[in-house]
Amino acid sequence: MLGYVLLQTVLLFVARTFFWNVNMTRVFTESNYECENMGTPAVIAMLLFFLAAILIGLFPFFEGITRFNEDLSGKQAVLELLTPIASWKKLAAKLATVLTSAIVGLSCSAVSVTAFILISSRFDKKVLDIFRSALQKAFASPGLLLLDILYIIFCFASLYMIVYFCIAFSKMFSHKSKAAVLIGMLMFVTVITILGFLNELMLQFPIIRFNLLGEDSLSSVLVSVLVLFGSLRGTAWLMDHKIEY
Length: 245
Prior knowledge:
- By secondary structure, the protein is mainly α.
- The chain has helices at 2-19, 22-29, 40-71, 74-82, 87-120, 125-139, 142-173, 177-204, 218-241; strands at residues 209-211, 215-217.
- α3 runs antiparallel to α5 (87-120).
């Protein structure tokens, strides 16, 4: 994380000190501006900055998946599966760690992007008004904002557990990397397809409709909760009964 902060600071300093020109400000103040006359070095510096921001936001997700896959492979599987702790507790701990890392990573990404936009636009009034309007809208209803945040975290948790389940399912058949990856990917596509069908079906029987990051229904939320805990228990069962070490 410290390396990321240092990298973004250097990129921002270089872009702002050596490559900045009035056209860079126009990128953030004119919606139809197409980076004309900015200069290749400035464009490259900007792209590198935003690429690094995207990578730090996604890194915890891929790291969590890779680490779980390694925990169920080779010699590491012996330690993982024989540790005298209930598998669901191990999974819950892994999930909590990954979610915490994801929140930190996404927060760093958001803060760095905001800083880049504000500094590159020289705190232009149009840009400040956009941020001010967004903050006012977000905090106009703190309760709804909290629900949105919890819902996003819940969605991340569900996605992680589905991926964990697919990895555990693949390890039930093969510990070989290529075969396991293929089986896991096929299982993931199958699960997502089934969940998509169920979500469409639940929208026909909503029980209660509400707006939470878009239109949703109580029946869909209940299915999502069942999916989260079902994938948690399913992964734990596979680890306890079906995966060899």
